[in-house]
Amino acid sequence: MDNKRSIVDIIGERYANRTYQNKPLSREHRDMLDEYMAVPVKGPFGMTARFSLVAAREGDSSSLRDLGTYGVIKNAAGFIVGAIQKTDHYLEDYGYLLERIVLYATGLGLGTCWLGGTFRKSGFARSISLEEGEAIPAVIAIGYAAEKPALLDSIMRFGAGSKHRKPWEELFFNGDFTRALGEVDAGAYRVPVEMVRRAPSASNKQPWRIVKENGRDDFHFILERTKNYYRNWKVVGMEDLQRVDMGIAMHHFDAAASELKLKGTWAAGAPGCALPDGESEYIVTWKGL
């Protein structure tokens, strides 16, 4: 995180902002975002993505009209659009890289909202000149948060349960899935693990699970799918958003570990224990150094 502020504080401030002040981004903020996104960064699986800020022109919010969001966003000053090649684990890398930008924008005092299932892809594809083999798994609405959220914003936040997070014992495990990981058991990694718990996810399903290896600072990231969730979205051509969610969680863990100077690396491997059920899928391991 290229910001002097604590990433832990920034994660605590971030929320899904759907209602914005009706004004464009300042030139300073546009320039800072463009400069930040222009630097290529690899995700944990080695992929890069290209990102672009599509912002409203001064005094003309109608310039964003073709970028449809089905009424869930009001007065956004712009959108951050990304494109990534479809390869193995491209969705996890995309979530990781785009959440990095979201937290940078939050650190600048901007409001943001992830959009994965509520936007029309055609307009965004044109805005970034989508190429063969590329995908736009999600976009980010961005702007200056309204002082008073719209009624629809409040309803959607309540419906998604965005203020409610699953407790540690439902998400994090010690050695295998029969033993919960307590905060004391997490040791120096207590804060990075907690930052995973606070990560945003599609419909607030919180699909990530972590199993800490006994006696080691190795953390296995497991995707616990919400039954029929992706199957329903797949019918209308949406991406597997819960894999994007895993990438978001991985960035929260990685960024917090880096801030605490906890060294480690992402590596493919195996969790070393049985998975809970057929909806579970091993993704990656953080290996502490």
Task: Briefly summarize what is shown.
Helices cover 34% and strands 19% of the residues. The protein has 289 residues and is α+β, with helices and mostly antiparallel strands. It has two domains: 7-156, NADH Oxidase (3-Layer(aba) Sandwich); 168-288, putative nitroreductase (tm1586), domain 2 (NADH Oxidase, 3-Layer(aba) Sandwich), CATH 3.40.109.30.
Tell me what the structure shows:
The chain is α+β, with helices and mostly antiparallel strands and 289 residues long. The chain has 2 domains: 150 residues, NADH Oxidase (3-Layer(aba) Sandwich); 121 residues, 3-Layer(aba) Sandwich (NADH Oxidase). It is built from 10 helices and 10 strands. Strands 1, 2, 3, 4 and 5 form a 5-stranded antiparallel sheet that branches. Strand 7 and strand 8 form a beta hairpin. Helix 1 crosses helix 3, helix 3 crosses helix 10 and helix 8 packs antiparallel against helix 10. The longest helix is centred in the last third of the chain and has 19 residues. The two termini are 21 Å apart.
